[in-house]
Automatic annotation (TrEMBL):
It is found in: Membrane. One of its GO terms (molecular function) is G protein-coupled receptor activity. This is G-protein coupled receptors family 1 profile domain-containing protein. Keywords: G-protein coupled receptor, Membrane, Receptor, Transducer, Transmembrane, Transmembrane helix.
Length: 456
């Protein structure tokens, strides 16, 4: 092909107006277009492999850690934590049913989870859309709960309880099953002929297994092709965005008005308002990130068919990129919790350090560090910390070395017979004092940590 092109250009160089010259230009342009498309598809393929693999790892581990951390005793007593646990489990379902299958299909279409059996086809597509649409519903529910907790405190105290949170989440999951049940009813595993091979008297037909709507349901096929994209976009993208935007704006307005009268409330209420602002920032960031990451794919699914140039390879490339952006939301919540919630970081650290073997890996200085370490002061030399409790609250964990040296110096002035007689008694008293002081210090530190950092 290359030799023929060059020889033709050499022979016809004296006649540039030859009609065959345009055909060669078209051929060269077509080859360049094919190469460009091939390079783009190759880059997109490797992007899916790298980014998709990272999303599976980060989303799987992150949502598991989020659910375990929020389930700890200090956090699961809070209503907001119950909704966030359900959201983490929903995102974990998204990782398994959506992100993992998306990744496997891009590696090899034969690894599609839906084509193994008819039951796998029905269950997989049902749970895919079930978890995809469950996450925004839970985000709306937690936004409503936070608004009631901040703006309608007395109503929230009576009705927004942990028990009611479980009931609301159960109702949301129950009704979501019926809303998404149509996927499992009308989708079936089908065999579609792909290629036919004829050799003499024999004829071989190659089939491909797909999970799709059968021709027995033409009305549902029309509904799936023309209506369901708009419905998905309206109820699970636009409505959650509007509701979360309004509620979070009202929460910020309430907090801003409370800040203006902050000088007329006591210090405890000031600390409570600061904790509410911290929680509002976290939920606002989760809501904004969810909308930003899910809106492109939902909008393309609902309105992509209206653009004539978004068909064929262009449509597949855009859908792949929008899907990667959408699936990034499954890994984002754990990072947002970690960056914006102090108590989440502390409970995560405590949970990890409580695992077998982690106490040996992490140095003692990191295990004993607490938020109050900067506020602790050293007891003066020669003053026993067992006299009063306030002195113990301001003592460091390294005070016992100076106490030992003080006692040893006091023992040097004692005569030998008296030292032999009472040496054991002094050592025993010293040991008991150390254990008692250490217990009080840890109890006081735990009490201060609970005061400084509020649960979710």
């Amino acid at each position: 092909m290359v030799e023929a092109t060059f020889s033709y250009q050499f022979d016809s160089s004296s006649n540039p107006s030859s009609p065959s010259m345009s055909a060669v230009s078209v051929t060269t342009s077509s080859i360049a277009t094919v190469l460009a498309n091939s390079n783009r598809l190759l880059a997109l393929k490797w992007s899916v492999r790298i980014i998709g693999g990272l999303l599976i790892v980060i989303g799987g581990i992150g949502n598991t850690l989020s659910a375990l951390t929020l389930s700890r005793k200090k956090l699961r007593a809070q209503v907001t934590s119950i909704y966030l646990i359900a959201l983490a489990l929903s995102d974990l379902g998204n990782v398994f049913f959506s992100v993992l299958n998306f990744y496997l299909v891009r590696l090899d279409p034969q690894q599609n989870m839906r084509v193994h059996s008819n039951l796998a086809c029905k269950l997989h597509i049902f749970f895919t859309y079930y978890f995809i649409n469950l996450s925004p519903t839970l985000l709306v529910a937690v936004s409503v709960q936070r608004y009631l907790a901040v703006a309608k405190h007395h109503y929230s105290k009576r009705h927004c309880t942990v028990k009611n949170a479980y009931i609301i989440i159960g109702l949301i999951c129950f009704f979501s099953i019926f809303i998404q049940l149509h996927w499992a009813i009308f989708y079936e595993l089908q065999l579609i002929p792909v290629k036919e091979i004829s050799t003499g008297m024999n004829r071989t037909i190659i089939y491909r297994r797909v999970c799709n709507i059968t021709s027995d349901y033409p009305q549902y096929m029309w509904f799936r092709s023309h209506m369901i994209g708009y419905i998905q976009w309206f109820f699970f993208t636009l409505c959650p965005f509007v509701v979360m935007l309004i509620l979070n704006s009202l929460i910020l307005k309430v907090i801003a008005s409370a800040r203006r009268i902050q000088e007329r409330i006591n210090q405890k209420n000031q600390r409570k308002k600061a904790k509410q602002r911290n929680m509002t920032i976290m939920l606002l960031s989760v809501s904004c990130v969810f909308i930003l990451l899910t809106a492109p794919a939902s909008t393309f699914m609902g309105f992509g068919h209206l653009f004539k140039n978004l068909h064929g390879p262009n449509s597949q490339s855009l859908w792949t990129m929008f899907s990667l952006i959408y699936y990034a939301n499954t890994a984002a919540n754990f990072l947002l919790y970690f960056l914006t919630a102090n108590v989440f970081r502390q409970e995560l650290r405590v949970m990890i350090l409580s695992l077998p073997g982690c106490s040996k890996v992490v140095p003692p200085s990191a295990r004993l560090s607490t938020p109050n370490a900067a506020n602790l002061t050293t007891v003066g030399e020669g003053v026993l910390p067992t006299t009063t409790t306030p002195i113990l609250r301001k003592s460091q964990l390294t005070t016992f070395a100076s106490l030992n040296s003080t006692i040893c110096r006091s023992q040097d002035t004692i005569s030998d017979p008296y030292q032999k007689r009472n040496g054991t008694e002094l050592l025993l008293r010293n040991s008991i004092s150390q254990n008692h002081n250490q217990t009080l210090i840890h109890n006081n530190i735990d009490h201060d940590v609970d005061d400084l950092d509020s649960p979710l």
